[in-house]
Amino acid sequence: MTLRLVRPDPSSTSTVQASTRWATLRASVRCWVAARLGDDLALALLPPTVGEPEAPDDAALPRSLVELADQYAALLADDHRKQHGAWFTPIELAQPTADRALAPIATTPRPLRVVDPAVGGGTFLRAAFRTLRANGWSADMALASLHGVDVDATAAALAALAVWEEAGCLGDPREVAARIHAGDGLLELADGTFDAVLTNPPWETLQAAPTAAAYVATLRRHFRHQGRGKLYTYRLFVERALRLLHERGVVGMIVPASLWFDRDAEPVRCLLLDGADWQWLFGFENRRKVFAIDGRYRFGAIVAQRPGPTTHVRVAFGRTELADWRSATPPHARVAATELRALSPGSGTFVEADEPRDLELLLRMQRRGSPLCGPRGRFAWRQGDWNMTSDRRHFVLRDDAERQGFRRDGDGIWRCDDRPDLLPLLQGAMIGDLHPNVGAHARGTGHGTQWEPPPTSDSVRPAFLVRADAWRAKAAAGAPFRLVHRALGNASNERTMLACLLPDAPCGNSLGVLTPLPTVTAPRAPLRELAAAAAVLGSLAFDWALRQRLAGTNLNQFVLADCVLPELDVDVARELAGLALRLCALLPGHAGLWRAAAAEGWCPDEGPAVAAATRADLVEQLDVRVGRSFGLDEADVAWITRDCERPAAALRRVPAAALTKGFWRVDRELPPELRRPNRWRAAARIPWR
Description:
By secondary structure, the chain is α+β, with helices and mostly antiparallel strands.
């Protein structure tokens, strides 16, 4: 049975509709409580608000107070729900989190104080009650230990009643409501007064709108570990939770995945690592709709105990079944805090690897390399040269230019009589894996852009052109070549890093651009260094390592700054550079790359690799050389390419979680022995000279 609400006036604004629906729901809840527990208690816990509408006559009654509390969030208007982060936690997630968080203190003989500073429907406090009872506590002592606040007064009242019912309707519910009540969990609780904090806080952004500016300013004065930019409620509650605890207190929380992969969350990550013993990070994907939000959304349960610092964290990622977390021995890897920092020295993010062998391989590769970019890196990085939105005034549609008489010359420049030259604006869809031309513009712009394979290997069809004179003036001080990559990627795609060596050419912001930094080494061979780096980025070894650390979809500098390039001796660097040149420098406009390679003394004798069979042979050589440069042996390659030998039909029977980041998608239309990962595995068995 569910509550049925009067539909708000559709002519009102969404904010007014949300407020009306909340008030109507509050009136309905009061009627329900009055029917069950009497008017006096209903009015005491849920006093009428100003202008509140009458409850509808057809409000149906749930079976219990717990059910009513659980249903409440789903009955709110979407705008209100999002504004207040009202996505209540299922008991199946709250219970194992409470069990693990309370384990160190649940057997103590003294009274405890357990609080949820964003109590919602009271699920975490009900879970805490069950944990304490299972550890031998009496019902009245367990009930007396529970505290909570919530900014939604109706939710707080329902939480108090649900906890009271969980305790067998023990005593006066007003006494429970005195401890679980309306309030601001970020500001109104006393620091250092609780033994445990259990919560799933809102996951929203606090905007400094005129109506909220004073509140945001107050929060900034009270919180010191929030980083720059906007305030995020979950980060505030993580910091608040640790401040609420006494010196041996514990915390169990549900948090969004950005806690472990967002660079701006680094201050609060450091607080957990240094100010507490961070014991668990158990990550989920929302495929099973644990929360009524996008199935791709990721979140996790964390458990920590004061004081710090952390020595090891138990980690798991990408889980979809709550049963994994409820297990007595959840599947996980144990990673040292020193290893976390070694793997992500620039950003402090977690690498999403929960297989011990993956962690061992990543650490070994990390020790054999130096940063790709960033303050200690080998190359400078930026996101394109032109913003596809704000710089649109500088672009010319290629179709329009060609209607006006512009034609592409052999050097890749669009010319028309004595009019200014135009250059192609490169976008992410045009660049492939060590290939400069995999996408030709078909039609449309913006979100409606459609791309298709080029009709011939040297047919370049960008969506936009830009004035060559403006670009040449802008680029004159830079190197005449660059390494680009698609700026968007995913750890579960066929490939995550799609990179290509190019001459200096204008790029949109869907491409990341790497250019050589000045070095003190002599003799300098900047193109060779960049071409060898292109070979590394195009390898399966580098791609595998990147997949373990990429939690989002943006391949930006803070992600790449933690990636490393292996240290290469001169002969290997020359060989890799030659492979990259043959794979990437395919178009007539790339002649300058070949001339520069010749000037540096390493230009290969063979020309551009256009034929598919030739390219397959070259990438096999590239994978072997890069893998060995990272210190990977035959067994390591077999581990990285596991499942790639399976026929497509057999892959469908492998659990999805085991295949998420695998290379089984690469060349899966080919017979297993011809697929790139399997060719690498076979070649890795051959002794290298």
